[in-house]
Write a structure and sequence with these properties.
The complex is a heterodimer of chains A (576) and B (371).
Chain A lengths: L5 H11 L3 H28 L14 H7 L4 H32 L5 H7 L8 H12 L5 H10 L11 H25 L3 H9 L4 H30 L2 H7 L7 H10 L5 H31 L19 H27 L18 H7 L2 H35 L4 H9 L6 H13 L9 H26 L2 H9 L4 H29 L5 H4 L7 H10 L3 H29 L4
Helix pairs in contact in A: 2-13, 2-17, 2-18, 3-13, 4-5, 4-8, 4-10, 6-8, 6-11, 6-14, 8-10, 8-11, 9-10, 10-13, 12-13, 13-18, 14-24, 15-24, 16-17, 16-19, 16-21, 19-21, 20-21, 21-24, 23-24
Chain B lengths: L1 E11 L5 E12 L4 E5 L6 H9 L6 E6 L2 E5 L4 E2 L7 E4 L11 H11 L6 H14 L15 H13 L5 E5 L7 H18 L2 E6 L2 H7 L2 E6 L2 E6 L1 H6 L4 H6 L4 E10 L4 E6 L2 E7 L8 E6 L5 E3 L9 E11 L4 E7 L2 E7 L10 E5 L6 E4 L7
Parallel strand pairs in B: 3-9, 3-10, 7-8, 8-9, 14-21
Antiparallel strand pairs in B: 1-2, 1-4, 4-5, 5-6, 10-11, 12-13, 12-15, 13-14, 15-21, 16-20, 17-18, 17-20, 18-19
Helix pairs in contact in B: 2-3, 2-4, 3-4
The chains are: A mainly alpha (576), B alpha+beta (371).
């Protein structure tokens, strides 16, 4: 990416303006600026504004004073840092141990744990938090009750409504991410590096300590960093666990500034700017560190057959760890959700409760209009977001990686910007933008569509650019040399080759849109209600068993989306 | 027929300069001929080919293919690639992985004008596959073919439209040595049979020498010598050509005097030599005397009455099967020679090297010293 070539490329750009080929990139730049840059501009603007959407701009620093010089400033900062670093550490620990056991040891049955470790991805963060409240609430948490009965304890051993509780509920949902990143790192490690340690006389543990771990250090650093940033941006457990427990982090402060009466948009915006800068700094460090990792010799992208460590009798300890982890962390939240969805009112599991199990919650939902509207909105938004984001990003990726047009690096950069914007910050920014917008889309699902598309552009970009870069340029040139016009080439060669990669990106965006929470929480209201926010509201009102039923239906819908995708991708023919 | 006049193509460079990849290149390929652009990577041969195909847009010049101007900077004409009467084989073959063998070959017929009926497409595509001996594999996925088969498939696809001109971009470079040798023969036979005007791009001198009617050697965006293979090999006009084609000994020196019949005497690193000379070399100028290893003769004893004989010491002897690769030190200069297997020489022995006058050629020195 050449950044100094700008004046030259502009000089070359102007005579080309007459060509339609350049109109497309310009439209792309326009759309991306509108989606990714304009809201951030409005956020900065709003954070210095005395009141929202006034006739005149009155400059003030009061918002920043209210946000960063109050009696809560220190505790919010402290909570955020503890929450983010604690979650990053715990998630990383679990992810790394799982990845190592599954990928690099002779732990029995490790092959079946590979897909199982990824299962929690299907559980939306809101449900993860709710499930752990069911399990670890000091009053009625199933695990607490069971442990108290088992050991004759006076009081509950765990309290989910605490910082460690928040960290736990958030971490277990993030483990699959850390797991996948570490599996990739373990996989790409050249086994001969370890083999030569063994040949030099180092034992299994010495090799692990002296060669394997040091080689992985740069990767570990960048994984920890991205986990830290993602936790800082998250709002699921801060909302469901933190707010009732009066433990506030930055995301919940922004939410509260918006939700108090009257809403303090200015303070919210000032807080959002701070969170945005923090997260942008984190992402910047992350991209820098991954660049460092690439310099490190182990990660070559070459497929190795990694060495297996012989754990000896310890492999049964590994097996016990995997089994316990799977039962408690992966399976239990699903089970408790399922159980609660059949209860008429919340009760601890017992043989007495068994005959009381009922379909009442599901019957109630059947006639509950807001549920159907939210379900419809969520599905509609998921499909529209995935489609719009993939169309946009495949176009952008094609321009960036294939067209070689001047200034296309700018498109690449703009498409990357949203990754630095925490969901709740984007929500705040879009409120500031669309409250005063000439077209009345605030309060409709169109604002949510814009928000989701903006958020997931970087994901779409990754899928699209990955598949576009894989297509050798000569495949398209061969079509031209065979007499195919631009359109014929695109239809018959480019698109069929791109389809598997784009479909994978589509389904991923579909899933994450369907479960989106932290942006929707500020933007979804009334007619534009979505499932995750409906859940949140009903949980706050205490309708916990109905919430469990909605959760189960949500999971089933996600599973259906994935199943349909696998069926479709089989038909479009992903062959190699 | 292909005719190119003063073709120029530049690319933007990192340092904001523009690099001339093709620098005023002109040549003409007559109907039915096999013409090769030969040169090291980065010499502009592939860019020239891609300009003819229409995959690159030249900066200036003129390109005529089969009697029609497909590009001319004078009147701004530029026919897009898909409207040019060409077939092309790419270095990577560019076989589409999502299509069957049959569909790969049928593609040009399906997208081209005029639109053909299904029966005719089937007939022509099968015909093209038969031509390259891929009949019977129609329904295989293209990716299931071996490297050599993919190469033939690419050829069938390039020929199926019966184009006026065939463009080949290093088509054999991804094959292993044995297969490459066979494909050289097959490709040339096919070209002769179809009498199709062919432009071939390669960096492999053996391919160029064995297949072409005419070779153009390119370097740094210009054609440095054009001629029949024998001409290029026997009478290289520059040090670069001599060095690039085949292995060559180069002996530095100064031209002392021009003599009769294109002969000259040279004061060289290894003593006085009598050489052939081109008219471009003036007396007193620096020259490089070039001679092929297989042309040098070794004598165990000093022969009498022969010109161009110098004494040396055998430095290395390597048995290569077909011949002995034997290097000889003459002072600081090392000459490489190819000798018959029967020659009994050993390391360290004294020998007399004969540089036959008819095989020595004095070329204007290009600096950089003798290699």
């Amino acid at each position: 990416m050449s950044t100094i070539a700008l004046p030259r490329s502009i000089r070359r750009t102007f005579p080309l303006l007459r060509e339609p080929a350049l109109l497309i990139p310009l439209v792309g730049v326009g759309v991306l600026i509108y989606l990714a840059v304009l809201p951030l501009f409005m956020l900065f603007y709003g954070s210095f504004q005395a009141e929202v959407a006034p006739r005149q701009f009155v400059h003030t620093l009061q918002n920043y004073q209210a946000a960063y010089a109050s009696e809560y400033t220190y505790s919010t900062f402290k909570n955020s840092v503890i929450f983010a670093s604690g979650s990053a550490g715990l998630t990383f620990l679990f992810g790394t141990i799982l990845a190592w056991l599954v990928e690099r040891t002779n732990t029995p049955l490790r092959i079946i744990f590979l897909p199982l470790a990824v299962v929690p991805l299907i559980l939306p963060g809101v449900l993860e938090s709710i499930a752990w409240i069911f399990l670890l609430s000091p009053k009625f948490g199933y695990l607490n009750v069971a442990l108290m009965a088992l050991f004759g304890l006076e009081s509950a051993p765990f309290n989910i409504f605490s910082l460690p509780g928040m960290i736990w509920a958030h971490s277990v949902g993030q483990v699959p991410l850390a797991f996948l990143m570490m599996v990739a790192a373990f996989k790409s490690m050249d086994p001969s590096l370890e083999e030569s340690a063994l040949m030099s006389g180092a034992g299994t543990w010495q090799t692990l300590r002296r060669v394997t771990l040091p080689l992985l250090m740069p990767t570990c650093g960048s994984v920890l960093l991205i986990l830290f940033v993602r936790t800082l941006e998250s709002f699921e457990s801060p909302a469901l666990i933190g707010i009732p427990a009066r433990i506030y982090v930055y995301t919940s402060e922004i939410y509260l500034a918006f939700n108090e009466y009257p809403p303090d948009y200015g303070r919210g915006a000032a807080l959002a700017v701070g969170l945005l800068l923090l997260s942008a700094a984190g992402v910047w460090l992350y991209t820098r560190s991954t660049r460092e990792v690439k310099k490190f010799q182990t990660v070559t992208g070459k497929a190795f057959r990694p060495r297996q460590f012989d754990l000896g009798p310890w492999r049964w300890a590994g097996f016990a760890f995997l089994t316990t982890y799977f039962l408690i962390v992966v399976l239990l939240p699903f089970l408790v959700m399922l159980w609660a969805s059949f209860l008429p009112f919340f009760a601890t599991p017992s043989w007495d409760a068994l005959p009381k199990l009922t379909f009442e919650n599901y019957q109630y939902l059947y006639t509950f209009r807001p549920f159907w509207r939210a379900m419809q909105n969520s599905i509609l938004l998921a499909v529209m977001t995935a489609t719009a984001a993939m169309v946009l990003t495949s176009l952008v990726a094609w321009i960036v990686y294939k067209s070689r047009l001047p200034g296309s690096w700018m498109l690449d950069f703009l498409a990357f910007v949203p990754i630095t914007v925490p969901g709740i910050v984007l929500g705040m920014a879009l409120i500031l933008l669309y409250v005063a917008f000439p077209i009345p889309i605030y309060g409709t699902i169109w604002v949510l569509l814009i928000a989701y598309v903006t958020r997931y552009i970087p994901y779409g970009m990754r899928a699209a650019s990955g598949s576009i870069m894989q297509i050798h340029g000569e495949l398209e040139e061969a079509a031209a040399a065979s007499g195919a016009s631009w359109w014929e080439t695109f239809k018959r060669v480019t698109l069929p080759l791109l389809r598997p990669g784009l479909a994978a990106g589509w389904i991923y965006i579909c899933i994450v849109s369907f479960r989106e929470f932290s942006t929707s929480v500020l933007l979804a209201t009334g007619d534009s209600q979505v499932l995750s926010i409906l859940l949140f509201g009903m949980f706050e009102q205490g309708q916990v068993t109905v919430v469990a039923a909605i959760g189960i239906l949500m999971i089933l819908t996600l599973l259906a989306i994935v199943a349909v995708f696998y069926k479709l991708s089989g038909r479009v023919g992903i062959q190699t | 027929m292909i005719e190119i006049k003063t073709l120029v193509k530049t690319f933007a460079d990192r340092s904001s300069d523009r690099v001339r990849a093709v620098d005023h290149v002109s040549f003409k390929v007559e109907d039915g001929r096999f013409y090769t652009l030969l040169g090291p990577s980065g010499c502009g041969k592939t860019t020239t080919l891609r300009c003819i195909a229409g995959l690159e847009r030249p900066d200036s010049g003129e390109i005529e293919v089969a009697g029609s101007k497909v590009y001319s900077s004078a009147n701004g004409a530029f026919v897009p690639a898909y409207r040019r009467p060409i077939g092309m084989v790419f270095q990577s073959y560019a076989i589409w992985p999502h299509l069957t063998v049959f569909e790969n070959v049928a593609f040009p017929l399906r997208v081209g004008k005029p639109r053909l009926g299904g029966d005719e497409i089937t007939r022509k595509a099968r015909g093209a596959l038969e031509q390259v001996e891929l009949g019977g594999l129609e329904q295989r996925m293209a990716t299931q073919l071996s490297g050599g088969q993919q190469q033939r498939l690419a050829l069938a696809r390039a020929l199926v439209r019966a184009p006026q001109v065939l463009l080949l971009d290093e088509p054999l470079s991804n094959l292993d040595a044995k297969l490459r040798e066979r494909m050289r023969v097959e490709l040339r036979e096919l070209q002769r049979r179809l009498r199709i005007t062919t432009l071939y791009v390669t960096h492999d001198q053996i391919e160029a020498l064995s297949m072409s009617n005419t070779i153009a050697v390119m370097s740094a965006g210009v054609i440095v010598q054009e001629g029949a293979p024998r001409e290029i090999y026997m009478h290289p006009r520059t040090q670069f050509v001599a060095q690039f084609i085949g292995s060559t000994n180069q002996v530095g020196g100064r031209l002392r005097a021009l003599e009769s019949e294109g002969r000259a005497s040279v004061d060289s690193e290894v003593g006085e030599l009598l050489c052939g000379v081109t008219s471009e070399v003036a007396a007193g100028s620096q020259v490089a005397v070039v001679i092929r290893p297989e042309d040098l003769i070794l004598h165990p004893r000093k022969p009498s009455g022969l010109p161009n004989v110098v004494e040396g010491k055998v430095a290395t002897v390597m048995f290569l099967g077909e011949y002995l690769d034997c290097t000889v030190e003459i002072g600081k200069k090392v000459l490489q020679t190819h000798q018959p297997r029967s020659l009994g020489v050993r390391r360290g022995e004294a020998v007399w090297v004969e540089l036959p006058v008819s095989q020595c050629l004095a070329l204007p020195s290009e600096g950089g010293g003798a290699g």
